[in-house]
Specification:
Number of strands: 10
Strand order of the largest sheet: 2-1-3-10-4
Mean pLDDT: 94
Largest sheet: 5 strands, mixed
CATH architecture of the largest domain: 3-Layer(aba) Sandwich
Distance between the termini: 30 Å
Number of domains: 2
């Protein structure tokens, strides 16, 4: 079965489990020929709604807005349960107050890591008119802009967050600590497709669950780091740093795709506070875990039959 899946342009280690599922033949074992297509935020939304890429892997913030607008989209599994995001300032910056009137590097104007950045700035009393966001791209480009001094601060993910720490740049906020209920990345589906092809969705989720288990297994550490090196632009040291920060230290990845409404608490609060969405429906309405529950049930039965 051919299946087209949308992932962000700057996917990086956040979508590690998708790389694992492809590299270790987990999709193929489920009879799936999965093509992971990199797209920007607006492209992903358009292709999800059209059914061209009926599954996407990304932050669910923009999709919550789509659901509120009545579109047939739902979150069906968790990928990254809290944000592996860290706000670093340029040399000499000691507080958020010093960012007033300056330019910050971002990946987008509203969603993804930019939503979290805007949230933490708002917490510090800085509104949208108190700073400018420069769209420079993914975390590597944002780090480069910070180091060269063309921006006063930015938000980084591993491995660039670790590089910023080693370079002695000031850490202004650690978002895994500040927003522990901010579902950072999830799997969304076009409901029309999912209802027409439930067995395909369940098979895809079985592969994802197996990939999440592999990433969480300490015995597979070296193999998981090697996959990230072979299927990304990271070198071995950078991939090892990602594993140390994301898997071992902050434990940001979901296990077995598990997800509950409370996992969206900080995210929904941010969307409301920043005026992006009233979120009247509430967290439970954004989820449809039917296919995940079936995938989990089948894997549990499979495990019992092997005993």
């Amino acid at each position: 079965m051919k299946l087209r899946v949308a992932v962000p342009e700057h996917a990086g280690p956040v979508h590690w489990t998708g790389l694992i599922a492809a590299a270790e033949g987990l999709y193929a074992a489920e009879g799936l020929d999965v093509e992971q297509l990199r797209m920007d935020h607006d492209e992903q939304a358009a292709h999800l709604l059209s059914g061209d890429t009926p599954i996407e892997r990304r932050g669910p913030d923009g999709d919550i807005v789509l659901i509120e607008e009545g579109h047939p989209v739902r979150i069906i599994a968790g990928l990254v349960r809290k944000p592996p995001l860290y706000v670093y300032g340029a040399r000499g910056v000691r507080s958020f107050a010093e960012l007033r009137g300056t330019t910050l590097a971002a990946v987008s104007g509203k969603f993804g890591s930019s939503l979290a950045l805007r949230m933490v700035l708002a917490d510090a009393g800085l509104g949208p008119d108190d700073y400018a966001l420069r769209m420079v791209g993914g975390t590597g480009r944002r780090y480069a802009a910070l180091v060269e001094g063309s921006v006063s601060a930015t938000i980084l993910t591993p491995p660039q967050s670790g590089a910023a720490a080693r370079a002695g740049l000031p850490l202004l906020a650690s978002l895994p600590d500040r927003y522990p209920n901010f579902l950072f990345s999830a799997m969304q589906v076009n409901l029309t497709y999912a209802h027409a092809h439930p067995e395909t969705i369940v098979a895809f989720l079985r592969a994802e669950i197996r990939a999440q288990r592999r990433l969480a297994d300490p015995a597979a550490k070296d193999a998981m780091i090697r996959i990230l090196v072979e299927h990304s632009d990271l070198d071995a040291a950078e991939a090892a740093a990602c594993y140390a920060e994301m898997v071992e230290r902050d434990r940001v990845f979901c296990t077995d795709g598990r997800l509950v409404p409370a996992d969206l608490g900080d995210l929904i609060d941010g969307l409301r506070r920043l005026g992006e969405c009233d979120c009247r429906l509430g967290a439970a309405a954004y989820l449809d875990l039917t296919w995940l529950a079936e995938a989990q049930r089948q894997l549990a039965a499979e495990g019992r039959s092997r005993r």
